[in-house]
């Protein structure tokens, strides 16, 4: 299968190179040139199979000739073995017709583990075969960095360096990054804020000599392989609720639009999805775009659902590409306008196409807290603030079809917000109960590019 850029000017690549490249050379995002379909029978046959088997059947057509079937199965098995629940993505019922897909049973207690654990295995496989090594460098405000460290720890073809703003991540998030004992894991506490971390990573990528010298690679949320891994739980959830014989709706707590775009891919593959609902917190650029037809940046307001605090939503470019009938030149122009003027109007035709695919809603801080409290009282289920944003918006979109809200993080990852809402502090799962006792290993670094580059060159394990 070929992958093409949303801006139309980059070389077409196969799956493996798309995964290793991340961002296309024209600044665009890679998408498959055709979406493989699953027949009704193939979808129906997913009922009752393991998550791993479903993952194999759903992803296989996208991976092309990258690897033999047995090797893909082995990568999938290793990726999901560390999860703390045999179903991997279990459903629980919140109310008549309303279900929660718990995507937080991975090693770092957030849905990002589904994608990161798999691409860890795929990168390792690819490097082994090529006989080369890579250095993953990423900036994080918390969840992505810990998921990357968990996914790459101990893999011998990969070093992983994660920059986080010193003193500005939660204690659980910090400990998840600093307690991995493996020598290929390097947690760097940068003297600065998240934007400084991101800027440092960007500067390293723009230093081509350095980039080539260390085999620099990114695993951020625009990586197509991450989107693909997230398609799977739409299938397993919908099939458990009666698909393909009856359609199912989904509501997705959204930031960078990767997770919900995976839902769109599932639908295009033939899964009968009714509504796909974008749920935002007060950083609501996506909800405003769908309401008004104008895509416009505003400042970021901090919320109790910080993983959705975004100003621009990077994967939304993929949705625009579809809405503009895959016109790369049109998308490139919109992105230039966004950069130069901070926004752009969506054309009538594209807006109509977006509204046919996505519904949307927004939850305020008060509504988020009230939803955590209300659901705990009515069902005993404790929601994290991100999942609560989803549940609140889902409640406004219930129909006669089953609704699945994606629960994106474990409540114990955001204990302060949950305690403020319910009066009870959520406990970490047993397998992580000793997190607060594990020794930490972290390097404090100045916000200085040359010093960072020196450190990365010295610390790499080969
Ligand atoms: C990353 C994240 C989101 C947003 O997901 P996107 O794919 O960026 O839209 C929502 N909730 C949690 C807990 C996250 O970590």
Q: How would you describe what is shown here?
A:
This protein has helices at residues 15-21, 40-44, 51-63, 69-80, 112-130, 143-152, 171-178, 194-206, 208-214, 224-240, 258-268, 285-292, 316-323, 328-341, 348-357, 365-379, 385-395, 415-422, 449-459; strands spanning 3-5, 30-32, 91-95, 98-102, 134-139, 158-165, 185-190, 216-217, 248-253, 273-280, 294-296, 343-345, 358-362, 403-407, 443-445. It has a domain at 91-110 and 224-422: Rossmann fold. It is globular and about 60 Å long. β9 (248-253), α11 (258-268) and β10 (273-280) form a beta-alpha-beta unit. α5 crosses α6 (143-152), α6 (143-152) packs parallel to α7 and α10 packs across α11. 45% of the residues lie in helices and 15% in strands. The mean pLDDT is 95. The longest helix has 19 residues, at 112-130. The protein contains 19 helices and 15 strands. The protein has a 6-stranded mixed sheet with strand order 3-4-14-9-10-13, with helices on both faces. By secondary structure, the chain is an alpha/beta fold. Bound molecules: pyridoxal-5'-phosphate. Residues 110, 112, 143, 221, 253-259, 307-308, 386, 408-409 line the site of pyridoxal-5'-phosphate. Pyridoxal-5'-phosphate binds at residues 110, 112, 143, 221, 253-259, 307-308, 386, 408-409.
């Amino acid at each position: 299968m070929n992958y093409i850029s949303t801006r139309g000017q980059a070389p077409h690549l196969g799956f493996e190179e798309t995964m290793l490249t991340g961002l296309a050379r024209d600044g665009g995002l890679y998408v498959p040139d055709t979406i493989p379909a699953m027949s009704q029978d193939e979808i129906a046959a997913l009922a009752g199979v393991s998550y791993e088997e479903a993952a194999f059947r759903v992803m296989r057509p996208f991976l092309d000739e990258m690897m033999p079937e047995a090797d893909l199965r082995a990568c999938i098995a290793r990726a999901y073995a560390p999860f703390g629940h045999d179903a991997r993505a279990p459903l629980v019922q919140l109310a008549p017709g309303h279900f929660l897909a718990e995507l937080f049973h991975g090693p770092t207690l957030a849905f990002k583990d589904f994608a990161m654990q798999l691409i860890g295995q795929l990168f390792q496989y690819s490097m082994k075969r090529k006989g080369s090594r890579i250095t993953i460098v990423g900036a994080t405000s918390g969840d992505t960095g810990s998921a990357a460290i968990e996914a790459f720890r101990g893999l011998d073809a990969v070093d992983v360096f994660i920059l986080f703003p010193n003193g500005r991540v939660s204690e659980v998030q910090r400990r998840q990054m600093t307690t991995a004992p493996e020598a290929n894991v390097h947690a760097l506490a940068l003297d600065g804020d998240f934007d400084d971390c991101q800027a440092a990573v960007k500067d390293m990528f723009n230093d081509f000599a350095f980039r080539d010298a260390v085999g620099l690679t990114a695993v951020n949320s625009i990586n197509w392989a991450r989107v693909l891994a997230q398609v799977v739980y739409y299938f397993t959830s919908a099939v458990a609720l009666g698909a393909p014989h009856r359609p199912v709706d989904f509501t997705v707590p959204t930031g960078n639009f990767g997770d919900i775009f995976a839902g769109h891919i599932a639908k295009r593959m033939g899964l009968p999805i009714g509504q796909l609902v974008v749920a935002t917190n007060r950083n609501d650029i996506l909800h405003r775009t769908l309401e008004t037809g104008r895509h416009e940046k505003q400042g970021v307001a901090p919320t109790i659902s910080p993983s959705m605090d975004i100003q621009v939503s990077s994967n939304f470019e993929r949705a625009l590409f579809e809405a503009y009938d895959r016109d790369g030149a049109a998308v490139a122009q919109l992105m230039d306008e966004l950069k130069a003027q901070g926004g752009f109007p969506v054309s009538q035709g594209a807006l109509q196409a977006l509204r046919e695919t996505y519904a949307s809603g927004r939850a305020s801080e008060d509504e988020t807290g009230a939803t955590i409290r209300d659901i705990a009282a009515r069902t005993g289920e404790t929601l994290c603030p991100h999942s609560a944003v989803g549940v609140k918006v889902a409640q406004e979109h219930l129909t006669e079809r089953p609704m699945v809200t994606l629960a994106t993080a474990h409540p114990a990852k955001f204990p302060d917000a949950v305690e403020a809402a319910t009066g009870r502090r959520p406990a970490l799962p047993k397998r992580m109960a000793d997190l607060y006792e594990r020794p930490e290993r972290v390097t404090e670094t100045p916000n200085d590019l040359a010093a960072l580059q020196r450190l990365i060159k010295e610390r790499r394990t080969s």
